[in-house]
Amino acid sequence: MNAMTHYMELLATNQPWQLLIFMAVPVICAETLAITEMIILFTRNMTGAAKKVSKATGIFAGIYFLGIFIYLFINAVIPLTTSGGWRGPADVIAVGFYLSGVIPFMGMFLLETGLIGKKRDETGKLKLHAVFVGIFLVVAHIAMIFGMLNPDLLIMKM
Predict the structure, then answer these.
(1) Keyword annotations for this protein (predicted)?
(2) Nearest-CA neighbor of 95 among 154, 2, 38, 11?
(3) In angstroms, what CA-CA distances link 18 with 4, 142, 154?
(4) pLDDT at residue 39, rounded to an integer
(5) Degrees (nearest 5) of the Cα angle 29, 94, 81?
(6) Gyration radius of the chain's alpha carbons
(7) What's the 3-state SS for the chain?
């Protein structure tokens, strides 16, 4: 019987460093983005401090999480897949959804650096940015939920 998914094992190993690197920094970025997003939506101030913090956080989070994605893909996903080391569906779902966080974070990075959304007005960019924040929050929470499961719960017993 496996006690935990690789997701939880990653966060529990080498305390507190891996918890900080793989959970705290991305979640703090997401929460900062969500809060600044609300401030911008309520005030419609597209040049204030909240917008500057949001832009800097979006750029940082995109680069940071791309690094996490590359590191974990090379050092966890490929070895687990080639060795058959996955601990069942919950394990794959947790890690897969966690790593899929690279998509919205990179979307924010590309938006903030002007590589996408060039033809959108400020409101259109704000809407797209809010969508990216929402997507990250959803995939991160799915990863957390499945990551906290005992991976044996979703294994079909014959």
Answers:
(1) Membrane, Transmembrane, Transmembrane helix
(2) 11
(3) 16, 19, 26
(4) 96
(5) 120
(6) 17
(7) CCCCCHHHHHHHCCCCHHHHHHHHHHHHHHHHHHHHHHHHHHHCCCCCHHHHHHHHHHHHHHHHHHHHHHHHHHHHHHHHHHHCCCCCHHHHHHHHHHHCCHHHHHHHHHHHCCCCCCCCCHHHHHHHHHHHHHHHHHHHHHHHHHHHCCHHHHCCCC
Give the predicted TM-score (pTM) of the model: 0.92
Token pair, residue 84, equals 């058959």
Record the tokens describing residue 66, joined without a space: 């791309």
Token pair in block for residue 81: 């897949």
CB 125 within 8 Å of CB 55: no
Nearest alpha-carbon partner for 40 in 75, 32, 59: 32
Distance CA 109, CA 1 (A): 41
Residue 31: both structure tokens together: 């929460």
Closest CA to 140 of 21, 20, 23, 14: 23
| First-residue to last-residue Cα distance in the chain | 15
Per-residue CA distances from 48 to 36, 126, 127, 145, 151 (Å): 10, 14, 17, 36, 46
